[in-house]
Amino acid sequence: MQDQSDRDEIFSRKVRAGKRTYFFDVKATKGNDYFITITESTKKFEEGNYVKHKIFLYKEDFNKFMEALNETVAHVKSDLLPDYNFEEYLERSEQGTSSEQ
User: Fold this and answer.
1) Residues 36-88: pLDDT tens digits?
2) Which are the contacts of 73, defined by CB distance < 8 A and separation ≥ 6?
């Protein structure tokens, strides 16, 4: 039998980031509406389990959330770390040489 949370999942993307994995999931409500969950999952090797932190993002907040996230990332990239090569990690990941392997 399929779990209720699996049935309600409409779309999912996974981003591996070193020891962390981020999940971006679109889920449906009973009323045929949609929301996004963003989950950070970190494996705790000594215990052999995962610690998860989850954010629920509802449609009325999508634009405000994206605006704040984009402004925050742009501030770090342009004002705080203008000389840092943020593309380096994307390039390594695409080549299959990321630090997680």
Assistant:
1) 999 999 988 777 789 999 999 999 999 999 999 999 999 999 999 999 998 88
2) none
Q: Could you give the number of structural domains in the chain?
A: 1
Q: Residue 101 falls within a domain, yes or no?
A: no
* Location of structure tokens 């962390």: 20
Is pTM beyond 0.85? Reply is no
* Dist CA 25 CA 56 (whole Å): 10
> Residue 14: what residue type?
K
CATH of the domain at 70: 3.10.450.700
With the C-alpha atoms ordered 77, 57, 34, 8, is the resulting torsion angle positive or negative?
Answer: positive
Which tokens in the block code for residue 51? 């610690």
